[in-house]
Amino acid sequence: MIYNYKRSFNCILVASIFVMAGCKAYQPVVTPALKNVPDSFVIATSDTVGIADVQWRNFFADSLLVSLIDTALLNNPDLQIAMQRIEAAKAIVRRAKGAFLPSVNAVASTGIDKFGNYTMNGVGNFDTNFSENIDKDRTIPYPVTPDFFLGLRSNWEIDLWGKLKNSKKAAASRLLASEKGRQFIVTSLVADIASGYYNLLALDNQLKIIQRNIKYQQDALDIVRVMKETGRATQLAVQQFQAQLYNTQSFEYSTKQEIVQVENSMNYLLGRYPQSIARDSNTLNSTLPSIINAGIPATLLTRRPDVQQASLELEATKFDVAAAKAASLPSLTITPYLGLNAFKANLLLNTGSVAYGIIGGLTAPLLNKKELYASYKLAGANQQEAFYRFQQSLINSFTEVHTGLNDIENKRHMQQLKSKEVEELRSGVSSANDLYVAGYASYLEVITAQKSVLQAEFELNDTRKDVFVALIQLYRALGGGWQ
């Protein structure tokens, strides 16, 4: 008997050594060094507190715009989808936590067995029924033996190497990443609504410019017609002035169509059907702060939601790699059960039918090692991809801020020069009209002056709008708007 125990122990020991020897050590995943973010923006005037720290309700002073953003945050389809992604990520975390606990199943089962006459069970059952030591309740049904079970069965994997722990950490990181993804959508949504709002204001102002120039051109046309009647102008001059007026009137309808398109685009972001957008035309005439403080670039790591999301995704892939590596190592599983077991239904509730047991096993993959290794390589590739996405998000965020700062600075200078250009051209139109009436200028010079001032006013209007949009985009690029 002692020899048999030693022999069994030796067999188990040899088998364990064989299993452990089959566990191949995987090479660790090594990512490149992260490129350092520059210490400061060249054009920034200060490195203290940036505009992105301002809550968006305070950043936008227009109450109508604030109301539109509130509506978008409540009804935007993309934001609602992002919320469901967060709920899905929470469910995955709960599932990962549940993997640490044993599964317990209530079982009520029945079955039958017909053992062969030349098997141990067949011979044993047949012989037992002839034993004088058993009563009629212990008589085994023959030749078909039923089996009834009522009780609990459990399965519990012991997390020896951290596979379940790392899976849980990966799920938790992705939950945080999904929240950062929602914040990034909020940031982009706030910027898109504000940009669309200022675009509408610019189109409204453009419509006023067109209508004002239509009046000027109509007055010029009336003067030419009078001059033609007195013989001081030709029919060609009248036709040219009339054509110029038609051309400007056509701009009015194209601008109205642009307004409809922008309103519909904004209504889509607001999660509602097309309708008019309430707006304050005086907002476009407000002034920007003289100093735009971007803050230090390092704060992008803790401010921009997309950068934080990429960082959390990278962290999750590291846990995935650790879990994939642990999956190749032996796993310990414990399978207990407790219940009532009998081969006759009327004996199932008898106290003598109580049965229990437990099985513990250490298993290690042998034939599917290639599959597990492929899973590890896949997790490693995903980690490398996540690293490059994180690096990409840092470069992109810094580039966007640097571009935005220069854009605001250059657009301001453009606006100042365009304002002076419009003033000169408006004076030129008045001078051209006077000279034409006095006979010192041709009608072509008047028409050219009218075209020039209209085009310049369009460009000034767009430049003024672009300055505000550039500030909004800088606010978004710095991670503002999601608070």
From TrEMBL:
Belongs to the outer membrane factor (OMF) (TC 1.B.17) family. It is a lipid-anchor. This is TolC family protein. GO terms for molecular function: efflux transmembrane transporter activity. It holds the Pfam family OEP. Residues 1-21 form the signal peptide. It is found in: Cell membrane. InterPro entries: MdtP/NodT-like, OMP_efflux. GO terms for cellular component: plasma membrane. It comes from the Bacteria. It comes from Panacibacter microcysteis. Its main location: membrane. The keyword Signal applies. Keywords: Lipoprotein, Membrane, Palmitate, Signal, Transmembrane, Transmembrane beta strand.
